[in-house]
TrEMBL record:
Protein name: D-alanyl-D-alanine dipeptidase
Catalytic activity: D-alanyl-D-alanine + H2O = 2 D-alanine
The protein's Enzyme Commission number: 3.4.13.22
Gene field: ddpX
Known role: Catalyzes hydrolysis of the D-alanyl-D-alanine dipeptide.
Catalytic site: 162
Protein species of origin: Paraburkholderia bengalensis
């Protein structure tokens, strides 16, 4: 029997980030709470890259606000059942990189604690959420490019459809981590 990969807890106290974990509330695209408790976890390699992103954001007077990180496969199924659209939700057979502990959804907030205008909200399943969607105001493009630059410089890559989603390269080679029953994630 092989041990499960270890997930590292991310907290405001240990990492200097803001947490707004959407799936531990009903303030997400499903309109219902998916996790009973809010926990932010990443694999050690992704957590190390996140620390670099935090440092880079701080160097320009910004902070990171995290919406989601590790997601148990059962939670992924809840999302897929609600919106079976492979443009925005990873198909169950493929598995989400969130369920591998290598993906993170986040934005930038300024020194006053206000999130930068990214043109759409987190988890807006619309064309305007694409990283380089034409027709968005210049300040939105600038804000998205700032987030993109920080995350790429820290070692993450982006996906085309979601300005908020970043993941570690090579994530698909890693196994899905089922931490829903033994870990801090209990589904609703």
């Amino acid at each position: 029997m092989t041990d499960k990969p270890q997930l590292v807890h991310i907290t405001p106290e240990t990492h200097g980030v803001e947490l707004d974990l959407a799936y531990a509330t009903d303030n997400n695209f499903t309109g219902k709470r998916i996790y009973k408790e809010a926990h932010c976890l990443l694999l050690a390699s992704a957590e190390a890259a996140l620390r670099k992103a935090i440092e880079l954001a701080d160097s320009v007077g910004m902070k990171l606000r995290i919406f989601d990180a590790y997601r148990p496969p059962q939670a992924q199924k809840v999302l897929w059942d609600f919106l079976p659209d492979p443009n925005f939700i990873a198909e169950l057979g493929r598995g989400s990189n969130h369920s591998r502990g290598t993906a993170i959804d986040l934005t930038l907030v300024d020194s006053s604690g206000e999130p930068l205008d990214m043109g759409t909200g987190f988890d807006a399943m619309v064309k305007e959420s694409e990283h380089f969607h034409k027709g968005l105001p210049q300040h939105v493009q600038r804000n998205r490019l700032l987030l993109l630059g920080i995350m790429h410089a820290a070692g993450f890559k982006h996906i085309a459809n979601e300005w908020w989603h970043y993941e570690m390269p090579g994530s698909r080679a890693l196994p899905v981590i089922d931490n829903s029953e033994s870990g801090p994630f209990k589904l609703m």
